[in-house]
Design a protein that fits this description.
Number of strands: 7
Strand content: 35-45%
Radius of gyration: 15 Å
Distance between the termini: 36 Å
Helix content: 25-40%
Largest sheet: 7 strands, antiparallel
Shape: globular
Number of helices: 4
């Protein structure tokens, strides 16, 4: 298992940030590496969505954590030829009201279970990039939430 997390303060109320992060169609606007996303079925906990990465890969995702307005998490599994069932990624977005400064503290967490030791080694080499992507995502989310 490989875990990367980043957090940031967003100068917007928790409800505004929640409205952005819980909508699948908003993922490309703020989550780095996502080119498109659509709901396949359901809503809230158990919702299924299709997430297309900028590199052309597509992942089916299922919402596995949903506590309005503080937590959403989904599990992605690769689709298509050559994908391995044991490889998966979980992404969590945790929101907390910032009592001191106002606004919202956003914590992004990515947990990956790679398909085998070679993939694990490659993922570890790319941890810096994953962290940079999370920081970019937080910056984009900050801008989106400020617009409201």
């Amino acid at each position: 298992m490989i875990l990367v997390e980043r957090s940031a303060h967003v100068a917007a109320p928790i409800e505004v940030v929640w409205d952005v992060v819980q909508r699948a169609e908003q993922l490309p606007a703020w989550l780095a590496g996502v080119r498109a996303a659509e709901v396949l079925s359901g809503e809230g906990f158990g919702r299924r969505q299709l997430v297309q990465a900028g590199r052309g890969s597509a992942h089916e995702a299922e919402v596995i954590a949903y506590q309005e307005p503080t937590l959403i998490g989904w599990r992605e599994r690769a689709r298509g030829a050559g994908s391995r069932a044991e490889a998966r990624t979980e992404i969590y977005v945790q929101l907390t009201t910032d009592e001191e400064e106002g606004g919202t503290i956003v914590r992004l967490i990515v947990v990956r279970w790679p398909a085998g030791p070679v993939k694990a080694a490659l993922l570890r080499l790319g941890l810096r990039r994953v962290g940079a992507d999370l920081e970019d995502s937080l910056a984009r989310l900050t801008d989106l939430a400020a617009v409201g």
